[in-house]
Amino acid sequence: MTALSPGAAALVLFGVFFLLMFLRVPVAFALGLACLPLLVIEPHLDSMGLVQETFNAYNSFILLAVPFFLLTANLMNVGGITDRLVRFSRSMVGHFPGGLAQINVVLSIFFAGISGSSTADAASQSKIFIEAQRKEGYDDSFSVAITAVSAVLAVIIPPSILMIVWGGVLTVSIGALFLAGIVPGLAIGLAQMATVHAYAKRRGYPTYPRATWGEFFASAASRRSSSSAARSSAGSPRPSRRASRCCTPGCCRSSSTARWT
User: Fold this and answer.
1) Given this model, what pLDDT does residue 2 score?
2) For the whole model, what pTM was predicted?
3) 103 lies in a domain?
4) In a 3-state reduction of DSSP, which class is residue 261?
């Protein structure tokens, strides 16, 4: 059997790939299955070579950072750190115009240092914020846009999976890449917060009451007061002192529209 020319091999590869895509086969499986006909047609290739090349491709210490970063993000999410970060972000920027969207951006900055993946960031925050923003009167286009754009910070603010892979492939110092991404990532985050501020002022998006210093330090220490814990567990309809103090003419409208707790 004669060897295939490069043009014929490319025709077989792309032809089988697009055929599988037309049959609605997932892309990952289509890429793998498209190589199988060449193993049968080409005499210089065998199954053992395919296994060896596959093992060599995945036998990389740098690529181990990708699943372990995602595993760490999932473990922290299951452990409840996401809820604590939301409370901490709300105590920081919840009183800014467009409070929930501001929390979205700040939480993306925190998540950038946890997952290192913009895809994982967007997937986790879309479940939390898009529906909540829709309930508070945000436009769907604005909610989706700010969630997607803020997730990009995960590849800029260290530790970033992209920086680790890039530094390993090009033999560049990963520590230097991390240091180079801190200031630009924070600057982009501040620019996104300023954009949210402008849109919130123009469209009248709701805001939250300003958190006290006690609430700020309590959220930073991941503590809950005994009264809030008892109220959430018992479901008592009686308002707390803090709620009665908050209902002033200046913040009644914002506290009634802000439902994120």
Assistant:
1) 64
2) 0.62
3) yes
4) coil
